[in-house]
């Protein structure tokens, strides 16, 4: 089995708040570490009522302090929202606090809608070449400084922080290949160009100091439960959230409802079938078969598993089932004091 990792948006569920989300995220990370998951990543989103991970570096510091061995990272930081120097300093700080455990995934989307993007960046004039330049600038801050270098990332310089390129189009695949960086594709919500992006990345990959061969990580939704019926019931929270988002009415993660798909018009079901096509929903044996089939079809080097479930205990159980059916090696673990 290839490595499995966790993507957590620290969901704010209906009837709760961000404080509970952060406690649940830490609890999930501690369990994921115990169960043998490789990484625990959180993503930058803004102005979204159901996502609490907007200040990504801040919440990652909380997660890293409460765990001991699992890699902690951003999946990702939306670099157009920030100066490369600030991100180098933030993640240099995380790496200095937790050496050898920090990843930095970079995306070029704003992680929000146009109004919030304007509030973040003040300027929506897009330059297709700015993101690659910003990535290279950021990477340079992690190198040892030149004698005459005036701007330095302290902390940051000289630290070995793996950089990932995130994407849902061919742009990110091409950039990751050109820079010789690992590539994470957002197939868990935008799978349309997945196969072509994987092909482009692997075909054009150029080895670098960080990576000598292509490494593809794919986002994958899993809603696992003791029965297929229960799993489909739990998945209805995420399905409702997507419909709400696509209709311009984002909400906290809704409570699950029975037979949700049957209540939708045909176009709503078709939309969910498309955006959530990279998903496994069901009992342990159903999920195991779906995971095996997805890996065999894509040749993924790693899966980034996300499980947007309203009830925290049920979400933990979903990740536990995945660890059980895939045979993840669970290390000895003691909870942080």
TrEMBL record:
GO-annotated cellular components: cytosol
Residue span, Luciferase-like domain: 15-301
GO molecular function: oxidoreductase activity, acting on paired donors, with incorporation or reduction of molecular oxygen
Origin: domain of life: Bacteria
SUPFAM superfamilies: Bacterial luciferase-like
InterPro entries in UniProt: Bact_Lucif_Oxidored (IPR050766), CmoO-like (IPR019949), Luciferase-like_dom (IPR011251), Luciferase-like_sf (IPR036661)
Family classification: To bacterial alkanal monooxygenase alpha and beta chains.
PANTHER family: LUCIFERASE-LIKE MONOOXYGENASE
Protein name per its UniProtKB record: Luciferase-like monooxygenase
Biological source species: Allosphingosinicella flava
């Amino acid at each position: 089995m290839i490595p499995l990792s966790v993507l957590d948006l620290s969901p704010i569920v209906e009837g709760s708040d961000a404080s509970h989300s952060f406690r649940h995220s830490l609890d999930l990370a501690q369990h994921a570490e115990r169960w043998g998951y490789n990484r625990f990543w959180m993503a930058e989103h803004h102005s979204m009522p159901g996502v609490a991970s907007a200040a990504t570096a801040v919440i990652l510091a909380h997660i890293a302090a409460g765990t001991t061995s699992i890699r902690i990272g951003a999946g990702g930081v939306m670099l157009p929202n920030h100066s490369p120097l600030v991100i180098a300093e933030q993640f240099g700080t995380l790496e200095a606090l937790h050496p050898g455990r920090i990843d930095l995934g970079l995306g070029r989307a704003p992680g929000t809608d146009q109004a919030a993007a304007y509030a973040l960046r003040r300027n929506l004039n897009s330059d297709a070449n700015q993101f690659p330049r910003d990535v290279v600038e950021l990477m340079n801050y992690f190198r040892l400084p030149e004698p005459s270098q005036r701007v330095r990332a302290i902390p940051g310089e000289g630290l070995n922080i793996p950089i990932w390129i995130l994407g849902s189009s061919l742009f990110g695949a091409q950039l990751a290949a050109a820079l010789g960086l690992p590539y994470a594709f957002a197939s868990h919500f935008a799978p349309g160009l997945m196969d072509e992006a994987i092909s482009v990345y692997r075909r054009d990959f150029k080895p670098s100091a960080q990576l000598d061969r292509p490494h593809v990580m794919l986002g994958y939704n899993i809603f696992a439960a003791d029965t297929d019926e229960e799993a489909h019931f739990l998945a209805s929270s995420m399905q409702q959230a997507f419909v709400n988002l696509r209709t311009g009415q984002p909400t906290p993660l809704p409570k699950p409802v029975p037979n949700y798909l049957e209540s939708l018009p045909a176009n709503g079901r078709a939309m969910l079938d498309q955006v959530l096509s990279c998903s496994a929903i069901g009992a342990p044996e159903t999920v195991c078969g779906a995971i095996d089939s997805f890996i065999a079809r894509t040749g993924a080097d790693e899966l980034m598993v996300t499980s947007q479930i309203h009830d925290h205990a049920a979400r933990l159980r979903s990740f536990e089932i995945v660890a059980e059916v895939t045979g993840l090696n669970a290390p000895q673990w003691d909870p942080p004091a």
